[in-house]
Design a protein that fits this description.
Helices cover 46% and strands 21% of the residues.
């Protein structure tokens, strides 16, 4: 049976929506689904491991990859840069594994141009009021930061139409089930199963 390359799943969401919780559970629960490992110019945080959490490089090395068109997408966030390596991603997909990218809307739009059949999932908060409540509840942000995050959230939400699936994270369990369903449904799409169907048909 001929194996087919893996799928690319992209998740984007405003800060405080619950995206990381959902993405982590998805990767932990589903076989053959791994997180994309980004290349970044920021310094490692305590406990982060090279090649597992990120590929850590300096600005010169990052510039070199950009010049060589070695990133599928890259963005600048607060003076640090993050990119998805083209060769790394291709090697993982060629091995038949599915890859999940947790990236901002800008990176997601760039990735969609590079990989048109990437499956794009946007997670929405139930309402602006609830998102603000969650951000304040984390106790991590000042009043100014909460306002900045809410403004940024509105800009991100305006791009919802560019995504294939919209999941409203009102109830975590329901949202997780919806995302799991998206992965399973993608894996059994006709174009991905045609080799198996032909093989079965030849047996008749």
């Amino acid at each position: 049976m001929q194996s087919h390359p893996g799928n690319v799943f992209v998740i984007s969401a405003p800060s405080g929506t619950g995206k990381s919780t959902l993405a982590n559970r998805l990767v932990a629960s589903l076989d053959n689904l791994i997180f994309s490992i980004s290349t970044t110019t920021r310094a490692p945080r305590t406990g982060e491991v090279e090649g597992k959490d990120y590929f850590f490089v300096d600005d010169a090395a990052f510039d070199e990859v950009v010049r060589a068109n070695g990133f599928i997408e890259w963005v600048q966030v607060y003076e640090k840069r993050y990119g998805t390596g083209r060769a790394w991603l291709q090697s993982v997909l060629d091995s038949g594994q599915d890859v999940l990218l947790d990236i901002e809307t800008t990176g997601a739009m760039n990735l969609r141009r590079a990989i048109p059949d990437a499956v794009m999932i946007f997670i929405l908060p139930p309402s602006a009021k609830e998102l603000e409540r969650r951000l304040r509840g984390r106790g991590k942000d000042s009043e100014a930061q909460v306002k900045a995050r809410m403004n940024h959230a509105r800009h991100e939400l305006e791009l919802y139409h560019a995504y294939d699936f919209l999941v409203v994270n009102e109830d975590l369990e329901t949202s997780y089930r919806q995302m799991e369903s998206i992965v399973w449904a993608t894996r059994v799409r006709r174009e991905r199963m045609v080799g198996r169907a032909q093989e079965i048909l030849r047996g008749f």
